[in-house]
Design goal:
InterPro entries: aa-tRNA-synth_II/BPL/LPL (IPR045864), Biotin_CoA_COase_ligase (IPR004408), BPL_LPL_catalytic (IPR004143). This is BirA family biotin operon repressor/biotin-[acetyl-CoA-carboxylase] ligase. Helix content is 26%, strand content 33%. The protein is of the alpha+beta class. The protein has 2 domains: 6-192, Bira Bifunctional Protein, Domain 2 (BirA Bifunctional Protein, domain 2, 2-Layer Sandwich), CATH 3.30.930; 200-244, SH3 type barrels (Roll). The strands form 2 sheets. It has a 7-stranded mixed β-sheet with strand order 1-2-3-7-6-5-4, sandwiched between helices. The chain has a 5-stranded antiparallel β-sheet with strand order 11-10-9-8-12, with no helix packed on it. Helix 2 (70-87) crosses helix 5. The longest helix has 23 residues, at 157-179. The N and C termini lie far apart (40 Å). The structure holds biotin (BTN). Biotin is lined by residues 14-16, 37, 40-43, 46, 48, 50, 56-58, 99, 109-111, 127-129. Residues 14-16, 37, 40-43, 46, 48, 50, 56-58, 99, 109-111, 127-129 line the site of biotin.
Length: 245
């Protein structure tokens, strides 16, 4: 069960860092939550603001066999968070490949990381940040939203976390493990993605370089896009951000 081993800190640098330093001594599916993070980070190493009131946690997986792709584990949680928000009558979208948006504003960011000491990953860490009761700083009001303002009341972050973990385990993770393929959960993911075939999107690379392209194909593992010169490229999660143009 996800979270059977549960560790809570009032404050810590980052729950992902905690698992990176301690994964050897912890069982698979350990959950680490912090009320406040002092150095929370997201994809591309971006700073992740983690004030009191938000849900900041990480989950450790130590898979015994393949598949070992961290982005598949991220997808398990994106879908579980989508379902949990739907329970609160919130219609979210998954921003390819992993974040959750409500009315184009970010409510949740997820980052997947692998620990590799040999040829294949030994551990996978999924870090989840959800704006629940934390106030959104004024300069981010156009880009981010919290659950409290959407449903007009505060909700316990632990309750939300338990709902997500329960859903992730029972509806997606067990199926994914059984089939050893992410395809079983991809159908639903495709349905709730914020992009579709033929959409024009802006790719933003690690150096913030932007390029407009059209989406040709969405597969479980990558996007195939075509640029204005007709070149076809594959885009993998993690290396690039995709923004709707
Ligand atoms: C992103 O949108 O880039 C992903 C943000 C992930 C933030 C979470 S908060 C809990 C965990 N600990 C971290 O340092 N990061 C993740």
């Amino acid at each position: 069960m996800i979270g059977e081993n549960y560790i809570h800190f009032y404050d810590i640098d980052s729950t992902n860092n905690y698992l990176k330093n301690n994964w050897r001594n912890l069982p698979s599916e350990t959950v680490v939550r912090a009320s406040v993070q002092n150095s929370g980070y997201g994809r591309k190493g971006n700073h992740w603001s983690s004030e009191l009131g938000g849900l900041w946690y990480s989950v450790l997986f130590k898979p015994k066999s393949r598949p070992l792709n961290p982005w598949h584990y991220v997808r398990v949680f994106s879908l579980a968070i989508y379902d949990t928000l739907a329970k609160y009558s919130i219609n979210a979208k998954i921003k390819w490949p992993n974040d959750l948006l409500v009315n184009d504003k970010k409510i949740c960011g997820i980052v997947g990381e692998s620990i590799i000491t040999g040829k294949v990953p030994n551990a996978i860490i999924v870090g989840i940040g959800i704006n629940v009761n934390n106030d959104i700083p004024y300069h981010l009001k156009n880009y981010a939203v919290n659950l409290k303002s959407l449903i007009d009341k505060e909700v316990s972050v632990e309750k939300i976390m338990n709902e997500i973990n329960h859903k992730a385990y029972n509806s997606y993770y067990l199926r994914y493990l059984k089939e050893k393929s992410v395809s079983v959960i991809t159908k639903k993911w495709l349905k709730v993605l914020n992009i579709k075939i033929n959409d024009e999107v802006t790719l933003i690379n690690l150096n913030e370089k932007k390029e407009n392209v059209f989406i040709e194909k969405i597969t479980p593992d990558y996007l195939e896009v075509i640029d204005i010169d007709g070149n076809i490229k594959k885009i993998y999660a993690g290396e690039i951000s995709v923004r709707k143009s």
